[in-house]
What does this fold into?
Amino acid sequence: MINREAGVFQTSYSSDMALYTLPLAKITVWVTLGLLLILPLPLMLGNNEHAMSIVNTIALAAIGAIGLNILNGYTGQISLGQGAFMAVGGYTAAIVSSRYGMPFWFGILAGGGMAALVGTLFGIPSLRIKGLYLAIATLAAQLIIEWTINHVSWIGGGAQSSIYVDTPTFLGLAFNNEFRRYYLILVFFLLAYFAAQNLVRSRVGRAFIAIRDRDVAAEIIGVNIFKYKLLAFAVSSFYAGVAGALWTYYLRIANYENFTLGVSIEYLTMIIIGGLGSVLGSVLGAIFIKLLPIVLDLSVIRIAKGVFGIPYESVANFLANFQLFIFGALIILFLIAEPEGLARLWENVKRYFRLWPYAY
Amino acid sequence: MKVSGTMEFFIDLMTNGLLVGLMYALVAVGFVLIYKATSIINFAQGDLVMLAGYGAAVMLGLRGLPLWLMVLILCIGMIALGFVLERGILRPMIGQPLVSVIMVTIGLSFVLQGLVAIVWGAGTRKLELPVPLAPYVVGPVFISPINVVAAVIALVFLIAFGLFFTRSRLGVAMRAVADDQQASMVVGIRVSRVFALSWAIAGLAAAAGGIIWGNMLGASSLLSLVGLKVFPVVILGGLDSIGGAIVGGLIMGAVESVAAGYLDPYVGGGTKDFIPYVLMILVLFIRPYGIWGHETIERV
Amino acid sequence: MGLRKWLVGCLVLACVIGVGNMVPAVADEIVIGGQCDRTGPTKPVGIQICPGVLDYVKLVNKQGGVKGHTLRYIEVEHGYKVDRGVEAYERLKREGAVALLDYGTPIVYALTPRHMEDKIPGLTPGFGRADSTDGERYPYIFPMAASYWSQIGAAMQYLKDKGGTKKGSKIAYLFYDNPAGREPLAIFNRICEMEGYECRDFAVPAPGVEMASQVLDITRRMRADWVVGHLFGNAPSVSIKELKKNGFPLDKVLSLVWGAGEEDMRTAGWDTAQGYLGMQFAGVGRDFPVIQDIIKMYQAENQEVPEYVGWVYYNRGVLVAALMVEAIRLAIEQEGLPVTGEKVKKGFETIKDFTLGGFLPPLTVVASDHEGGGWVRIYQTKGEKLVPFTDWFRGYREIVLDEVKKAAKAEEKK
It folds into this structure.
């Protein structure tokens, strides 16, 4: 069967080490890529920039979530500073583009690089402290970086703490509507996704996992904890920086309020719901967390109006807070039902079909 | 009014800071309690404080409800809530990865915020306590009565907790469970009961915190942010030390107040935000488990 | 397992209902929209402003709509988060909105490029970006009320004219430590230098509830003569209590527009807050024809009139809606149907001497001045109400306009 390994023989080392070895997996991946590429077309026909903006937001969040998962899920270092590192990336890109006129791809790389640097710096405490202590130290990073952006004009752009950038252009084509921006983000998203998938299967990835599981044992067998922990912070912050820079180009502005503590917690929520230690999980988690408020918003209002005949005005307060309540309740229920997240659900599905029609 | 010189200003800042520090300590203790007994980091502690604050404000707003009755009802209610939360939400999560449990408390925090707003509206409510607003003048120092009351309440609670944990059977049992769950079960301590109890007491601490902070800040969703403030205090003092929480709170309160008073003009404000964390990181470099925290010995 | 299936089922159901259900605009309707913050950090304000808007729109529809067309106002909750604000904007654009209320300074910043591109006017009354007064640089952003720059200018003018400040007076500026709070600083410092005041600023870090040391400094060490406050959310009530605790006379405290609502007074305690001065850009109280009409509307439907009708923030919501309606009306009169964002923009710029029955100072908007003049009025807390303390005025206008020009030049250089 196309979904089982039986009968599939690899004839070279490279095909054996490939990311997707099952025929079904390969087909699925190509089909998904194709779908992603043509996704905007039906939306363009319907002139639905709104839906496109939702997709864009999800894709951007996914990049950041993947980065956080590398640090948190694979290396076991809890970090609450994701928002701050994104801010670093975002502002670097904005400064580089608006003040020095660099093109957007340079801005993105610069943003990622700067964030990686800062992230490594704040990752140094991880060499001495662990667990919650480390989490709170990263919280310190969040607050310190926020404060710096707010108070140091050269970085933050003055009293408003926001820096505008021009619409990014590439070979004369300006990314000035949601559909074009989608392709810009898609490129980076795919790069981020496949880079992460490969990273975690590589030597470096295995070192990360070793540190997460038993770091003392890892050290004994020769994994350089110092180097790999810092590397994890660096890679994860690079992702965050790229995500932040992309946000800046997407919104055409770098504003630190996009990157507050609430955002850091949001990303943590994404990877926990999506599944720690799974790149696909990060993406699923991003979709879940970003889509849920919008879906709740639309559906709760419709249900209230349609089923109960209540107009918006009299229950607006209730509805808005009800959404918050449902959001929290869903997280709790979800975690009680499946504590390892959406990725585990997906794994269960795959496992079921792998054995189908047999039971075991 | 006496003209305040530099020394008086310093004393003012210091006293103010210490008193606020005690209030931090009160919330921190609730947090540490849960961590000590169950190893769970309760992100929703601040929201419990908020819930208690709203409850207190609403009850006081009802005509004819005497203060002591309100306090009694609130404490009983929060204890009951602690039991319910532990049973309903944390019990099913036993054995699950720690991060998932933390996430559940974060989800709980959203639930509480939404619930409070649905039931009691989103506006800020006044929490009236029969404490005068005008300051006492003690020598060169202005002390505001509410801070004193809060400090007294906090101290009473903290002493009560201290006695509970050292003298009573239940308290000693809790410490045993925090130390080694398996051994406690061997000696016949019912671990599940201890878990429930720790959440209940945390609820009680939240009640006290809610009344005091609610009076200072007004009962609003902002109270839940007090929980966030408490993190550096807890880390500084050591996650599993109640004494650490108290001392950590005092230190943090004092440092925050004094630093803000002196450093703010030079850095354009906002030092209060990150000074606690800077202090915390510095301490962590010297003592990675907090000043009084227990060093966990890792076995491979 | 049952729980899981149930959970998944619910999610799917919600998605299906929600996503597949965007109602297209009815042909004769004019759509306007806005974001709202009823759950986030500014919710004390949001829960009053948003109903204000909704109520006024309802009133207009009951009175026959705008030139016979019904108005549909769509409110989208964004919790003061920028990405949700962007999604809200796109959603409203899709529904065909011709004017939007942008709620929240960071959201205004983030959405400015989109407003310009899509040619949909955005209103930012009393907050937003002060440099958007310059309608020639920001044709589609309309502050429509005194910006923070105008507010601080007016505040300083009041201090000079009626507050008794002179050379050497000590003025403290207590503000929320974020971009909105810092915006007036440049003008504050400039005026201080010009007049020879001794000025210091005190930042209150988010979430704006810890200001004990700042207030200690103001009252004890600096011993300020006047405090100008620029706080919002829950901070104003805390500041009132702190200042009172330290014995500072509240009638020497002047707050900018977002720090002087009835809710703030009530939380601090009406008796605590006596004498506190607050700046407003819209009328306060129920004594205006438009508010009376709204009250009659509630009574006609046998509904209880909510207590916040007539309060500071509610009235501002009414103001925003009224401005939108006026602009649309002018757009239809001058340019005809169908209504588009561009026509509404022109409509805004032809608003002249608009007072809404004494609710406002005569508001006149032109292309170079999207603020409408920067008029404010000071109210004082007396008893359990806010009573008018001064008439409509503005101050240091030349300095404010100069800063606007400076900002424009700085942008052009980039």
